[in-house]
Amino acid sequence: MIPAAFEYYRPTDMAGVIALLQEHGDDARVIAGGHSLIPMMKLRMADVPHLIDLQGIEGLSGITVTDGVVRIGAMTTQHEVIVSDALAAAAPIMKEAALQIADPQVRYMGTVGGNVANGDPGNDMPGLMQCLNAQFHLTGPDGDRAVDARDFYEAAYMTEREDEEVLTAITFAAPTGGYAYEKQKRKIGDYATAAAAVQISKEGGKVAAASIAMTNLSDTPVWSEAAADALVGTACDEAAVKAAVTAMLGDIDPTEDNRGPVAFKRHAAGIVLGRAILRAWSRA
Amino acid sequence: MKDEITREDRVANLKGMGCSRKRVEDARFTQGKGNYVDDIKLPGMLHGDFVRSPYAHARVKSINIDAAMALPGVVAVLTAKDLEPLNLHWMPTLAGDKQMVLADGKVLFQGQEVAFVVASDRYVAADAVELVEVEYEELEVIVDPFKSLQSDVVLREDLVAEDGSIPNGAHGPRKHHNHIFTWEAGDLEATEQVIDNAEVVATEEMYYHRTHPCPLETCGSVASMDKVNGKLTLWGTFQAPHVVRTVASLLSGIEEHNIRVVSPDIGGGFGNKVGVYPGYVCSIVASIVTGVPVKWVEDRMENLMSTAFARDYWMKGKISATKDGKITGLHCHVTADHGAFDACADPTKFPAGFMNICTGSYDIPVAYLGVDGVYTNKAPGGVSYRCSFRVTEAVYFIERMIEVLAIELNMDAAELRRINFIKKEQFPYTAALGWEYDSGDYHTAWDKALEAVDYKGLRAEQAQRVEDFKAGKTRKIMGVGLSFFTEIVGAGPVKNCDILGMGMFDSCEIRIHPTGSAVARLGTISQGQGHATTFAQILATEIGLSAESITIEEGDTDTAPYGLGTYGSRSTPVAGAAAAMAGRKIRAKAQMIAAYLLEVHDNDVEFDVDRFVVKGAPERFKTMKEIAYAAYNQAIPGLEPGLEAVSYYDPPNMTYPFGAYVCVMDIDVDTGVPEIRRFYALDDCGTRINPMVIEGQIHGGLTEALAVALGQEIAYDDMGNVKTGTLMDFFLPTAWEVPNYETDFTVTPSPHHPIGAKGVGESPHVGGVPCFSNAVQDAFRPFGNRHTNMPHDHWRIWQTANNLGMHD
Ligand SMILES: Cc1cc2nc3c(=O)[nH]c(=O)nc-3n(C[C@H](O)[C@H](O)[C@H](O)COP(=O)(O)OP(=O)(O)OC[C@H]3O[C@@H](n4cnc5c(N)ncnc54)[C@H](O)[C@@H]3O)c2cc1C
């Protein structure tokens, strides 16, 4: 559990970061909270000869809510997500989800940007961001661009982000209606056996709109449009929930691991989603 | 002299046996001021790290160390070839087998030590490990002991004679080249006869999965060979430092007086630190070769993958009874997966430990146990994880067999236990498999436990829950887990217990200082048990000096008297007894001194808390402090000066702690998530030295029991790859997963132990595992479950529900 030797850099502006990324290409990586990257380096599963710390860059952290748009700086810690009153008011699902990530020690260090940029299917924030239809703001040698969370994930650890790009912030429209983040895990500090992020808005006793994303049930997060569609227009009754679960099961593709065989994971995914829908609906 | 304080105050000031004295160790542990092996830093010290095998079974074709040696800072790379001239490429195991220190021609498990890199710092060593080029030729891997006994593949070529015959092993004839031993106890013929003719017979097969003790501190050592004076000092994570010294002397040829072994603070052992590991040997050799100190400390993955595992027992049982539930016979066969080398840490004559305590707390007239040990391509070990030698397996076996028999008889499992308990008046009781239980009062403990949890009420609630589930009103079912255990701890009488020929006595040496404080040294070594606290309490009561004035030292073989160390709950039963006996020698001399000072006959004074008083004249007394002073400063006719004593204690018998546990659990059949609503633990460890320390031990042991029952395992895939090599997958519960424990007790002192104490550190683990498991299984009993194997993690519980049609 000792990493290979690496060079450590702590630039003070973004231009410096990008210059280093351009210079070292594949051999360089940025480090945010380090709570995904450092374990990988210690296991020698990630070989990072040039490590660029983002902590010296100003303006990368903080949460703002302006005109119904939530902006979370990439270096904002998961702990800050939990204690932000503004966020609790604008998007309470963020706190509910963050409280189910890892443990307090990890959350004091781990960042929202690192969590979404990492590309690990076990991370909780990517699915959550897809549920919220967030935009990821990237900056690189060719300037800035935004990518939808729903288009960002290609495969495990493979994302739309180019090697020389840095994620600076995440934005999303403050959601309306009811919400729930439901996660089954084996113990505190564990990644999900199955997790579901659900937002539902209600009009006249019916589901007006819904968004559903699942975590750790495929090599990327799974935003299930079909599952959400199955709810819209219904009274979110038992049949509708069942239909949503069935639709979701068509979109996920879990693999067997120590958390259990595929049949169990599919069952758990259905249970977790059913519970999340009912809780979100009760809050809608 | 006039006495200013009351007798009550004097007793309180003593902080002797029975009081909840705060642990003296905690001041340093809670401030991060402990001194562990990895804290040892010596001038010029080098660091070792292992090249380990990625394969579970392969021939080692070649090892090229050139690139590693070229890395600046690398001092040496040792392979089996370098150790061979010293005859240290293999080492003896505690079980009478031998084990490769570094791969000698082949590797037999994933993570096996192949080469030892020595470098100027830990980082360079790790980099150099990557640079050692090892060429392997993969061989067929065997991870299943049953297949192993059928396979043509020879795992241990060193144990097959040139003509292809299979020589005897350390424990007698071997049936197959991958077979290690057969060990039997009891009367096979009589048992079979009883079972064949019984009114009711229940049979069951169960797998007690492989797991690992996983102490917070991993294993490590620092060896320092002083070539000038020829002395070797070895610091390490040793649960038995004296045994390590003797073994090191026998292996290296260095005379024993020239070896000093020190166990500094140890961050948990649980059996994992009883054995001798290649890292220890390599650090010693490297220090001898380089002439400077060499440190080796393994990381978490290495600890989980390569150091001693626990359990891995495939158990097959038959239990017979009359129609009304009186047990008549028990048959048990175990196929024991020992991995690549037989490195079990058991007393020499017991290759399956004390598995023959498997008749449990019940009066079973006839029984048989047969155990077959088998080699596979897994890590060696087979230590007793927080239990006396294989007692957890034995208790799990009988407590599951009782449940299965209860199902067969359609009887309440608590009642079935009650009618079969050994009765109070039957003690000392000789069990069918040979052990003589020293004492017990099982019925009292059981009744107390069942009443405390309102057992009848729980069963009524459970019946209602079954109705509700069937009516679709709930998806949560409820289980009531029961277990009643009898342990066998305190190995042990030298007549039948030894390790590598060393009898399992233990020792205590006390030196009273002139001003009435003392230092006592013992042959045991605390790894978190709180010996410095509790042994001082035993001595305080025995010699009448405050526990606060008594320093306890352990773990340094240059100063501590010879002892066999700490494991198998043996410290209090054996070294605790030695402490009491040594204390009594001090008291005997103190009595003579007191009588002299008080100018009366020896028999005219008596001991009272902290002093000797003249019988019938309590105002005439000498305190132990005064006596201590006199011992050194006054010429007393017929007495040598000084006040010291030593005792080597060979216990006449083991002690037999017991307990009654109840667990109430709710299970979500859809997610497989269990919730422990209540856990009640009644322990009888005989005389209670420190109730608070006992409670702490019980909380810890129950938590490790929860871990094992509900998810903690070392799992292998078919290729022999370890699937649970990090704490992400190896289940180590946090405070969050731990329920509230209710503790209770009865006191049945051991009749043969000087203070009546029995040992408690392992009881909660031994009794806890079957209790948690039985709770899960009991929840499914109304739906047709008979037995499912641990660990009961979410998916396996879900699988049980699924198999029983509960998701339809
Ligand atoms: C014991 C433990 C349990 C955990 N449990 C969970 C859990 O249950 N759920 C969960 O979601 N996570 C969990 N995590 C992961 C944790 O949340 C991490 O902190 C998080 O995944 C990564 O954030 P970080 O800031 O630590 O990123 P780092 O580890 O620093 O970086 C992760 C990756 O993202 C890249 N990166 C980071 N920031 C940027 C950026 N601004 N632009 C471009 N690339 C960037 C890095 O180069 C690296 O490849 C756990 C971690 C631990 C150690």
What does this protein structure show overall?
The complex is a heterodimer of chains A (284) and B (808). The mean pLDDT of chain A is 97. Chain A is of the alpha+beta class and 284 residues long. Chain A has three domains: 7-53, 2-Layer Sandwich (Uridine Diphospho-n-acetylenolpyruvylglucosamine Reductase, domain 2), CATH 3.30.43; 63-173, Uridine Diphospho-n-acetylenolpyruvylglucosamine Reductase, domain 3 (2-Layer Sandwich); 178-283, Enolase-like, domain 1. Chain A contains twelve helices and 14 strands. The N and C termini of chain A lie far apart (47 Å). Helix content of chain A is 36%, strand content 26%. Chain B is of the alpha+beta class and 808 residues long. In chain B, strand 4 (90-92) and strand 5 form a beta hairpin. In chain B, helix 16 (571-598) packs across helix 17 (624-633). The longest helix of chain B has 28 residues, at 571-598. Classes of the chains: A alpha+beta (284), B alpha+beta (808). Chain A binds chain B through residues 1-2, 4-5, 44, 103, 184, 186-191, 193, 258-261, 263-264, 267-268, 271-272, and chain B through 122-123, 126-127, 130, 299-301, 670-673, 711, 715, 723-724, 728-729, 731, 733-734, 736-737, 793-796, 798-799, 802, 807.
CATH class of the largest domain in chain B: Alpha Beta
Q: By helix and strand content of chain A, what is the structural category?
A: alpha+beta
**Percentage of residues assigned to helices of chain B:** 25-40%
Helix content of chain A: 25-40%
Domain count of chain A: the total is: 3
Reported for the largest beta sheet of chain A, the result is: 5 strands, antiparallel
pLDDT < 50 runs, ≥5 residues of chain B:
none
Number of helices of chain A: 12
> What is the structural class of chain B?
alpha+beta
Tell me, rounded to a whole number, the average pLDDT of chain B.
97
What are the bound molecules? Answer: flavin-adenine dinucleotide
The assigned CATH architecture of the largest domain in chain B is 2-Layer Sandwich
